Amino acid sequence: MIGKCRLRITRQDFGTLINHLFPGDKDEHGAVLLAGTSLADGQLTLHIREIHLAQEGVDYVEGKIGYRALTPTFIHRLITRARDERLVYLAVHNHGSDREVDFSLIDLQSHERGYPALLQIAKGMPVGALVFGRRSVQADIWLPDGTRLTLDSAVVVGNTIQRLTPSPEHRVVGMSETYDRQIRMFGKAGQAELANCRVGIIGLGGIGSLVAEFLARLGIKEFCLVDNDSLEESNLSRIVGASFSDVRHGESKIAVADRTIRQANSEARTELIMEDVAKESVAKKLVSCDYLFLAADSMRARLVFNALVHQYLIPGAQLGSKIRSDIQGTVVEAMSANRPVRPGRGCLWCNQLIDPNQLAKEAKTDEERKTQAYGTEEPSPSVISLNAVSAAHAVNDFLLDYLGLRPDNDVLYYEHFHHLKGKRSLVQPRQDAHCSECSRTGQRFGRGDSVALPCIEG
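Below the sequence we write its predicted structure tokens.
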């Protein structure tokens, strides 16, 4: 039985690997990747956690049958590490091709000889191989049940998002006049990429409702919407599409967002989840998304979103606006924030954007909060125009980065707009080399389903 799998790798790791495989000598080189796994909607995804480059003449030598081969010592060290860490072992080599690549007959015969034994050592974990062209990749993944998988696509996640396939995809793209003006910017192929993208939006209030409409009008066709709140009259000033009738009928925020999306894009498909994203069953629905927008203001939502990005290598952005007054009631700060978060970078933990004290408060029951006077805080101010700045810039970044319309930048920046000062600032996020959430030494990065998300049961 032959099926398909997907692969995710960070831009940093991909650059390291490609520079090793293609140093300019037009020769073949080798490596081993170790990956976490996830299963969503019946499809296996590999999340690259570790890269081990094979040293020429030491770990990668002249083959007895094929041209080159990894040495038994190198293989044994890494297959046992994969077994112990519950990661997938992936042997890697390159061919001299560019946009199309596949295994040779000799490659496949070597897999037939060696991979049954590697499966035994791996003790229940898949094993496999990847072959790279300069801008292409193919996989041969062996599952413990005897299933073999080839590659559907690989996603390189940096500031920009790059997709690789075994060979160029020739899609027949038919477009209505709806998208004519934006197709003039990024072409029919770009419009097709947007149509095939699944986006998750956590929080469909003032900012999230704007994000949903912007994305729908861009042509995104698949949404996962998460929010457990119903409308109140105070929401009408800032939630796109909300009406007094919705308030009278106790309509949910996700239902309003769903209606707004469908009015903008009749072909859109929406998964509506009126539950807390901190529930494990809810968070797992977001694993299959290609991009995440966090527009909820709870610490628990930030905690789960941050874990999804680093654990499953999903790009995302955390959005918000803040208005602060002094004791006389004078507004002293009005700020909008657009904070991109990428696997291993922009971590909300590292940048103290997850408050442990507030997490503790949110973990208490309503009765406990009332008893301990936690329910006395006034609602935070919110203004639609400030929300729109955050939403628009985040969706612009998504558009430019997801379609690769601008060069990848090695440095990631948070974007802050200080409206009273008329100032826009770019802030390089902090990064803790030993962070448990985003670092390679931590227990979450690239682990996929093998590590529990920081969720409550349900």
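The chain has twelve helices and 18 strands.
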